[in-house]
Amino acid sequence: MTSVYKSFGVVLIVVFSCSVASGQERNATYIPGQEGYPFSEGLAPIYDSRYWKDTPENAGYEIFGKYGFIDKKGRLVIPFLYEKAGEFNDGLAPVAARRSKDQNELSYGYVNPRGEEVIPLHFQDARPFSEGFAAVKQAGKWRFIDINGNFTIKENFDDAQSFSEGLAAVKLEETDWGFIDTKGKLVIPFAHSSWFKFSDGLSAAGTLGTPGALINRKGEVSVTFRSGAIPTGAFSEGLITLSGGIDKKSGQTLRGFGDKEGNIVIPLKYEGAYDFHEGLAAVRKDGKYGFIDKNGDLRIPHIFIITEGEFLQAPPVFSEGLAFVKGGYIDKQGEWVLRTYDTSGSNSK
Q1: Of residues 244 and 22, more confidently modeled
Q2: How do 336-340 and 24-31 pair as beta strands?
Q3: Where are the alpha helices (DSSP H) in 9-159?
Q4: What totals of helices (H) and strands (E) does the chain contain, helices first?
Q5: What's the pLDDT score for residue 104?
Q6: If you count Cβ atoms within 10 Å of the first and of the last residue's Cβ in the chain, which end, N or C, has fewer?
Q7: Does residue 242 sit in helix, strand or coil?
Q8: Is the pLDDT of residue 299 over 90?
């Protein structure tokens, strides 16, 4: 692998200047990779398809590319070693590689910011840490570990999500979703067809017979949105994404935002919408994304393409001042800060 890295150039720092239709490319840094996650704790996972490997027809698997991590200066600080990667939380990030005898299977574990595999890659699946816990899959069941890799909740589940505000969505075979606390106690019964993490004391967990409802920490229906709007995410900065109504021209479901009182505060008029982060949210109009503020005012024009492929499916949200769109990372003025090496079909006009 070392020779491969050298052939690409590990750091790949190039500075260039040119203008584009939205903000400018003023001294943007050229970085490795094609798709990126949001930054968290100063680092971001980055995907590079140049590590795609043509495997034998009878191998039963393919290597599509590799993941590494960059810092906010665009430096590759953890090499392209992994076939999956997630964001850093609590000083650790989930990664996956082919380490078992069965090359069809990925082994999951956690690395620290120095790239050291501090929790060995021996799980079948793993989610990012949150509030000191992470859900991991072993022997077909999901359990929770702490930052030292020790199991903390004795119960096993058929599926489990990350903790948020002290609660995590879990599921048993042939049951709906419920929520447990950090002691493993079931505090909201298995009665919800879908789940979203708790935020601001509310969750848009699907409740039979009450579509569009938000539940509180007791599992009680607390808010119901009017006009048939359905929550499609979790509350973030006081607002939640909604869907409802059909655009007559395109036939697409329209998106907007609601508040904790059940009011639609930003109209259902967008083709797509993502959560608010750092005061801005990505919304799609005529096939292109821009960013609005919490008043619904457009702050960054609708000129960006969002990567929604099979690899990262990274949300275009601002984190630590940057957001990833196709072609690289932009700042809150819509100007390029970090550019990927392959900008074909990107946001330049």
Answers
A1: 244
A2: parallel
A3: none
A4: 1, 31
A5: 74
A6: C
A7: strand
A8: yes
